[in-house]
């Protein structure tokens, strides 16, 4: 970005310098002293351990956090922006600013830290640090994240943040390599600008952090980071994407994510890729085609075993707008390029160039269809939108400060506004008369703006150099701040309002590149639509109405017409020699007229809609109507074609009329109509309409009949045509008649011949009709068969007539007159038949039965040397035959080629073919005995066994290979086998080979022996003890303390467990014999410790009697112990001079301490000392009545105090809800103590 100077004012931008020490020792104020340090304990958050979870919403430095200040201090606030650096909204956050004065000499030069409380990572080997941050690095920056493992004495840098965070960024750091098992870890965020302390360099702006988390990652945690798009245009499809992040430690390949817009779009994609730990993946969805509106997009990721549900769902708002105005222009004064910009996606099309100097300050389109551009030295230009060319209109004078900073047109009031500055942060607002260019001052305010435009609400909006959206009053020029735009705006950028979608659009060079988008008019927030390539500055941006070139092309239909006058939109255009005239028009509908002497006027309209176009206009000469009337006699003729030289044919209608418009001239014409003679003539058009009458004559055509019997003419045949006189053929068999066009029926008759009926059609020529007449005949039908089935293809010869051939039905038919006829029927493979028949005034049927010729086929079947009896010979289409003792079988067959199959049990089937060809045939067949493979597969149930011996009766032994397989070839039969292998039980069985290979699966079992466990307590058997043997199912002892299991040879580890007994472990070996394992279990013993006191001092010598146990006595510390197994025990404690204490206790898998307080003897008489306790026993409520101040204490059976209070008079006590049993009531008055038991039912 270029840095420009506005008069004497320097525009300041922020940067930061390099921190020298990478591992500087940090010292903190008293909040971080070792004595006041807080050790923050981990908390469970959605199934993951979270050590730090700080969002700063408390509004002050959180407990346990600490700061070390050098210059400016960290501030906890929801808005810590200043005039030089804008922090986007992010609820409450912690931030540090480098505060300074414009001269650069009075800067704070901060070097400051904010640090977390100490974190105990004992037992933790994996952890992550996540936080949101915002910082600027236009001139360098020093924002570091550091970690200490000694409570803040020394620090290691774990992240150096570079470049610029134009918006809040989310960071995730794996700190596992630093914190492994460390008990005293702190994390600090360090901002430094101490190396930049001279007035000629630029400072950094600051550092902001929020939402700091330190957590132990879970194995499975897939979360959603973002949803796109947040902006779309109606009518276009967009591809939604969701950014997924794997926060867990395991790679994830089986997952799904669903996206919905809450209306009609609901799509799920799954398992698109494997997402590794700490990796992001962008999931793409099917296209979304929304209509205009605001949508809440919701994404939900689903992962089996996901430990953190808080990041599985994300919602974002997507703004869908109507299609933008089609025309907008953008200028880049940095490169000198002038573009047409597509507002829906920011794509650019070059239309020309623009000057790079002086600086361009803005562009605006007005109602007079002019684009106005103002530059840095107040020159006002008009701009041609089609090529970027400019025309200087004026140089404005009278602007305060003389430097324009914005131009905007008020469409509601037809006013153009210009803003200027005097270089001292004062903004002036003017109106300008676009006819005289006179300026009128509206007012001023203390602000520095860049770019402005009017919105649909009639208000004037701009951005200021503090990166805010502002509103400028058109009444007095005052400036009101709306809110931050969320990024550092370039000094020279421009705004343009899209009235279709009510969006304030902008092109701005931000620290993250050139951005095209829009501002929220209520908050100022910027939404990006697209990123534009390259560096932009001196930016201009405006909507406009784009004119189109409209060309009129005037012809007479084929030739261009020069000199024609085109009238459109108040303009008169004249066509050139090419018949063309061109004008530029804005979008809209326009009427036009075209005039030329000697031609009719042409009128029309043209719609201009954003593109150049040519309007074709055809001018016609002045004409008059010529009417033709075509008749035959008095009847009109439809369809007559009238041809006039140089014009298209016209055709008469049902009234026999046709019209044509013609200019003055003499014309020749011809009228034609099928069936009528052509008619020719001429006429003249002379300044008026003309009528032409045409009378046509039908055409006659000669029809010639020729009648024969097929070879000879037939005389005197009668030809009858309905509506006409009969005709008679002459000696040549000919008769003629003249007829007009049409279709005619006819009948031809002659004695001794069959009548012939037909029709003919006359279209446009003479017609010949040939008629062949036949004598009367009768059908003679031959049926040829083999005695049962018809025979096709037999030849039937009748003397004097052509041969006939029978069809698939065995039939052949011939038409014959009366008479006697000899015939012969022949067919290959059959004996010829010769007979005769007679036709006598009717049809005749002749049945012919034929016999096939057969020959002997002899089969001789052997095994190569010996004949084989009983072999079955199958021949296609014939009955099977069987060989005799000599291996011979015969069959009678006709000529032909035959396929055969010879089969015999236990022999391979033989197939072949042979041919009978007018002789006997012998077929020799040799058969081979059948052999099949038997395959043994030997396993232990899971794995193959090598080296097993397979013995088959009558065969050689086999041995299995490494795959446990052994094979042998055998003929059909049943076989016994045995399989043996050292260490395994022998397996026997049988199998049958039956016409195919055989597979025998053999499963061998290792030889096992019984291991018997005998479990006792040393004298008595123990039932229910669980015996666990590695690799085997557990077994349980019976009432005799016995449990058995069958095991193969080997050494085995075991453990024996039983409730209330110590677990016993050991090992044993099975070695080709049964094995007995004796196990003696000891009961589990726990220590019960009694502590006896008088309420303050231990009591020595107290005797404790426990049912079933020896008495024990307290020592000088008042303690006595006894070892006991689990159970509930009653006890009594007594000591001379003290009241006895009675109670019980329970040993339950743990040592136990029983505290007992004994009371002095002689002071328990309640009534004698003025006490009354009732009722006793009680169900919960009981009362104490006393005549003087007493201290009442209630204890449970093991001496634990339940309650204690002072009583004077009557007091209610309540044990409701406590366990039923014996409670002790101790009453103390002065130095006397009385104890009484209270029974709670």
UniProtKB/TrEMBL annotation:
The keyword Ubl conjugation does not apply. Gene3D superfamilies: 2.60.120.200, Carboxypeptidase-like, regulatory domain (2.60.40.1120), Immunoglobulins (2.60.40.10). The keyword Ubl conjugation does not apply. Residues 1173-1239 form the Secretion system C-terminal sorting domain. Pfam families: CarboxypepD_reg, Por_Secre_tail. Residues 1-21 form the signal peptide. It comes from the Bacteria. Keywords: Signal. This is Secretion system C-terminal sorting domain-containing protein. The lineage of its organism: Bacteria, Pseudomonadati, Bacteroidota, Bacteroidia, Bacteroidales.
């Amino acid at each position: 970005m270029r840095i420009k100077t506005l008069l004497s004012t320097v525009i300041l931008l922020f940067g930061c310098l390099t921190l020298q020490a990478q591992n500087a020792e940090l010292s903190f104020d008293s909040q971080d002293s070792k004595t006041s340090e807080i050790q923050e304990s981990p908390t469970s958050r959605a199934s993951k351990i979270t050590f730090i979870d700080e969002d700063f919403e408390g509004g002050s430095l959180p407990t346990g956090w600490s700061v070390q200040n050098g210059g400016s201090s960290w501030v906890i606030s929801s808005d810590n922006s200043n005039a030089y650096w804008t922090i986007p909204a992010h609820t409450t956050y912690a931030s540090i600013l480098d505060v300074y004065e414009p001269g650069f000499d009075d800067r704070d030069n901060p070097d400051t830290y904010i640090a977390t409380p100490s974190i105990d990572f004992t037992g933790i080997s994996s952890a992550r640090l996540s936080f949101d941050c915002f910082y600027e690095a236009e001139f360098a920056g020093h924002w570091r994240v550091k970690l200490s493992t000694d409570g803040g004495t020394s620090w290691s840098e774990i992240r150096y943040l570079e470049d610029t965070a134009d918006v809040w960024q989310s960071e995730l750091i794996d700190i596992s390599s630093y914190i492994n098992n460390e008990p005293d870890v702190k994390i600090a965020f360090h901002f430094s600008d101490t190396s930049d302390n001279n007035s000629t360099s630029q400072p950094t702006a600051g550092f902001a952090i929020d939402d700091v988390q330190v957590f132990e990652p879970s194995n499975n945690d897939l979360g959603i980071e973002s949803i796109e798009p947040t902006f779309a245009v109606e009518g276009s499809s967009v591809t939604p994407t969701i950014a997924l992040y794997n926060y867990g430690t395991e790679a994830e390949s089986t997952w799904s994510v669903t996206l919905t817009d809450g209306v009609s779009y609901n799509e799920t994609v799954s398992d698109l890729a494997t997402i590794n730990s700490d990796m992001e993946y962008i999931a793409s969805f099917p296209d979304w085609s929304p209509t205009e509106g605001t949508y809440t997009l919701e994404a939900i990721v689903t992962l089996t075993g996901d430990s953190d549900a808080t990041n599985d769902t994300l919602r974002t708002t997507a703004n869908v707008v109507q299609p933008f105005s089609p025309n907008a222009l953008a200028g880049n004064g940095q490169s000198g390029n002038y573009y047409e910009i597509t507002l829906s996606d920011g794509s650019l099309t070059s239309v020309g160039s623009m000057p790079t100097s002086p600086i361009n300050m803005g562009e605006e389109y007005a109602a007079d269809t002019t684009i106005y551009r103002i530059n840095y030295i107040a020159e006002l230009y008009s701009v041609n939108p089609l090529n970027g060319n400019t025309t200087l209109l004026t140089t404005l004078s009278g602007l305060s400060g003389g430097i324009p900073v914005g131009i905007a047109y008020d469409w509601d009031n037809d006013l153009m506004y210009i803003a200027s500055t005097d270089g001292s942060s004062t903004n002036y607002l003017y109106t300008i008369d676009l006819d005289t260019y006179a300026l009128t001052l509206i007012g001023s305010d203390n602000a520095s703006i860049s770019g402005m435009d009017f919105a649909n609400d009639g208000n004037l909006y701009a951005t200021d150099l503090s990166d805010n959206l502002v509103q400028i009053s058109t009444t007095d020029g005052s400036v009101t701040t709306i809110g931050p735009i969320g990024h550092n705006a370039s000094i020279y950028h421009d705004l343009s309002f899209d009235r279709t979608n009510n969006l304030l659009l902008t092109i701005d060079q931000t620290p993250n590149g050139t951005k095209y988008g829009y501002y929220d008019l209520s908050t100022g927030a910027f939404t990006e639509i697209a990123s534009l390539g390259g560096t932009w500055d001196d930016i201009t941006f405006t909507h406009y109405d784009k004119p189109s070139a409209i060309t009129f092309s005037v012809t007479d239909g084929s030739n261009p017409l020069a000199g024609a006058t085109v009238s459109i939109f108040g303009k008169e255009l004249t066509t050139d020699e090419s018949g063309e005239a061109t004008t530029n028009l804005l979008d809209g509908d326009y009427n036009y007229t075209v005039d030329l002497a000697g031609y009719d006027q042409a009128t029309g309209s043209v719609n201009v809609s954003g593109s150049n176009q040519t309007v074709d206009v055809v001018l016609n000469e002045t004409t008059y109507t010529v009417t033709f009337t075509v008749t035959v006699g008095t009847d009109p003729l439809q369809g007559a074609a009238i041809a006039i030289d140089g014009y298209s044919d016209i055709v008469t209608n049902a009234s026999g009329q046709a019209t044509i418009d013609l200019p003055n001239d003499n014309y020749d014409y011809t009228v034609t109509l099928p069936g009528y003679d052509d008619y020719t003539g001429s006429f003249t058009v002379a300044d008026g309409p003309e009528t032409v009458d045409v009378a046509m004559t039908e055409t006659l055509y000669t029809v010639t009949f020729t009648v024969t019997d097929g070879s000879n003419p037939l005389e005197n045949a009668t030809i009858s045509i309905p509506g006409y006189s009969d005709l008679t053929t002459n000696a040549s068999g000919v008769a003629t008649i003249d007829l007009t066009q049409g279709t005619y029926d006819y009948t031809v008759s002659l004695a001794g011949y069959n009548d012939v009926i037909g029709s003919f059609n006359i279209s446009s020529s003479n017609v010949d009709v040939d008629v062949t007449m036949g004598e009367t005949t009768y059908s003679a039908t031959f049926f040829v068969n083999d005695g049962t089935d018809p025979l096709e293809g037999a030849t039937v010869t009748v003397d004097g007539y052509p041969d006939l051939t029978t069809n698939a039905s065995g039939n052949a038919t011939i038409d014959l007159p009366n008479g006697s006829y000899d015939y012969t029927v022949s067919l290959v493979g059959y004996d010829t038949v010769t007979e005769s028949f007679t036709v006598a005034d009717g049809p005749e049927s002749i049945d012919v039965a034929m016999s096939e010729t057969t020959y002997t086929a002899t089969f001789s079947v052997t095994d190569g040397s010996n004949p084989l009896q009983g072999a079955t010979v199958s021949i296609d289409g014939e009955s099977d035959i069987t060989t005799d003792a000599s291996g011979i079988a015969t069959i009678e067959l006709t000529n032909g080629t035959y396929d055969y199959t010879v089969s015999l049990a236990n022999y391979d089937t033989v197939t072949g073919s042979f041919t009978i060809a007018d002789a006997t045939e012998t077929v020799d067949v040799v058969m081979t005995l059948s052999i099949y493979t038997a395959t043994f597969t030997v396993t232990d149930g899971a794995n193959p066994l090598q080296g097993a011996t397979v013995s088959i009766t009558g065969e050689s032994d086999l041995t299995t290979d490494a795959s446990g397989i052994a094979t042998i070839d055998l003929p059909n039969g049943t076989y016994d086998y045995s399989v043996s292998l050292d260490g395994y039980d022998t397996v026997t069985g049988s199998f049958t080979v039956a016409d195919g290979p055989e597979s025998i699966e053999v499963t061998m079992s290792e030889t096992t022996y019984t291991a018997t466990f005998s479990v006792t307590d040393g004298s008595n058997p123990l039932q229910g003890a669980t015996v666990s043997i590695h690799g085997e199912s557990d077994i349980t002892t019976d009432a005799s303390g016995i449990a058995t299991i069958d095991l193969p040879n080997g050494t085995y580890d075991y453990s024996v467990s039983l409730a209330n007994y110590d677990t016993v472990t050991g090992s044993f070996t099975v070695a080709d014999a049964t094995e007995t394992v004796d196990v003696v279990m000891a009961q589990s013993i726990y220590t019960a410790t009694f502590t006896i006191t008088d309420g303050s001092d231990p009591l020595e010598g107290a005797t404790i009697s426990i049912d079933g146990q020896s008495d024990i006595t307290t020592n000088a510390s008042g303690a006595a112990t006894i070892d006991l197994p689990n159970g509930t025990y009653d006890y009594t404690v007594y000591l001379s001079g003290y009241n006895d204490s009675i109670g019980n206790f329970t040993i339950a898998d743990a040592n136990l301490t029983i505290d007992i307080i004994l009371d002095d003897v002689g002071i328990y008489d309640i009534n004698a000392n003025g006490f009354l306790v009732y009722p006793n026993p009680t169900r919960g409520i009981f009362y104490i009545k006393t005549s003087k101040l007493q201290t009442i204490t209630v204890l449970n059976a093991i001496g634990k105090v339940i309650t204690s209070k002072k009583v004077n008079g009557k007091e209610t006590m309540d044990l409701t809800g406590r366990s039923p049993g014996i409670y002790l009531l101790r009453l103390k008055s002065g130095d006397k103590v009385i104890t009484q038991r209270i029974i709670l039912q």
